[in-house]
Write the structure tokens for this entry.
Amino acid sequence: MSLRENPAHPLTFTIGPIDRAALLRPDEKKISAFLTGGRAQIVPVWNQRHLISTDSRPLIFNYTEAARRVDLSSTPLVFLGVENDEPWFALGLPDSETPPDMGVPGTFVMLTDVVTLLPAGEATLLAYARAMVIWHFNHLHCGRCGAPTALTEGGHSRTCTNATCAHRSFPRTDPAVITLVTDGPRCLLGRQSQWPLGMYSTIAGFVEPGETLEQTVRREVREETGIRVGEVRYVASQPWPFPSSVMLGFRAEALSTEIRGDDDELEDCRWFTRAEVDAFGDRDAGGVGFKLPGRYSISRFLIEDWRRET
Ligand SMILES: [Zn+2]
């Protein structure tokens, strides 16, 4: 399957045709040959944004084009993998107040602003590139001794340059649970004050050290809504590099129904019937009334999954 194909699949960022070719990462000569061999496909990422053309296509560069615009020796260049005999790389452009001039007509935009316009495979690849670049810029110094780190293993690790330390760190993704709680005919949705007006979503929170995923689901739902949940069932997962998570989607059965938020994460939380959710609008539709989360989110996937049940 190519990056441009767009299979019918409702969960964005999960169609991943690229071969990550992880066993090649330690082979510096091979990675270098990939980069300069003429077939390299380089995806620039600047300030957590991708360079998108006026017709909503990601703009990709070869080595010569990229080297003309950017000092490739001083900024993260990450080997992402191989697709159709083409090696793909993510290029982390240094922070700057204004977007760098890459010499082509296009704009650096947030992935969430264009994701619904992209073929599924491209959306997944851009999410992967974004996650890797963000990790690099957050780990330029050693977490153990503070010395600068250097990119190693094709960008899939960073190694401390202090020889007596030599600590190696690896890209991290933070697990977060996201849960649709039901009490039979109704589902539990809440909203945070900074979300688009009227948008309600499923209950989410980060997994803490020492917790099972099921324990996180029960704790987060209890903290945010006061609802106790019994059976917890895993449904699906979604990479969520905003900035560095993987969302683990669950369904949970409520054991209680009285809503009472013990923390202030949600400004409102309610039970909704299917008929009520059917009357919701779309997140970006504007206007007043209740709205569903974006179509690219696993939250929406969990809600639609529930709506299809009879
Ligand atoms: Zn160190």
